[in-house]
Design goal:
Helices cover 27% and strands 26% of the residues. It folds into 2 domains: 1-33, no CATH class; 34-127, no CATH class. The chain is of the alpha+beta class. Strand 1 and strand 2 form a beta hairpin. The strands form 3 sheets. Strands 1-2 form a two-stranded antiparallel ribbon. Strands 3-6 form a two-stranded antiparallel ribbon. A two-stranded antiparallel ribbon has the order 4-5. The structure holds zinc ion. The site of zinc ion has 6 residues, from loops.
């Protein structure tokens, strides 16, 4: 059993190290506290591995089709209607063209794929 010293009422006494509760300044137990950055990195790695697996090993029981949802912006023009004292939409003008998004999804549920990833996913479906 490993021992350490504890200061009790000004006297140092040896106590088993596993009986000492290590507390941070906030009072939270540090026993289960992990480096948050390392935890985040580990989580990212796990997510990336899962993402890669979902792309490369498509579920044969699902339907697959690459898709995306995109928005096109319009500028809306309003006119004041004196009779009803309200603003009425008079006309609209398309501000930008419909563009392809950077990330694509598959109807099977795999999301956030780059174009090469989406292509790899469909190729895996076709070869599977
Ligand atoms: Zn799919």
């Amino acid at each position: 059993m490993s021992l350490t010293l504890r200061c009790l009422l000004g006297y140092w006494e040896p106590v088993p190290i596993n009986e000492i509760e290590i507390r941070s300044e906030t009072g939270a137990s540090m026993a289960n506290e992990r480096d948050p950055e390392a935890t985040l990195e580990q989580w990212k790695d796990e997510m990336q591995a899962e993402h890669k697996d979902a792309i490369e090993n498509p579920d044969p029981d699902e339907d697959h089709g690459i898709e995306a949802v995109m928005q096109v912006n319009y500028r809306l023009y309003y006119e004041y209607d004196t009779e009803s004292a309200s603003l009425e939409r008079a006309r609209e003008k398309q501000v930008d063209e419909l563009a392809d998004p950077e990330l694509l999804a598959c109807s099977c549920g795999v999301r956030g794929m780059t174009r090469p990833e989406a292509r790899a996913h469909i190729e895996a479906v076709r070869s599977g």
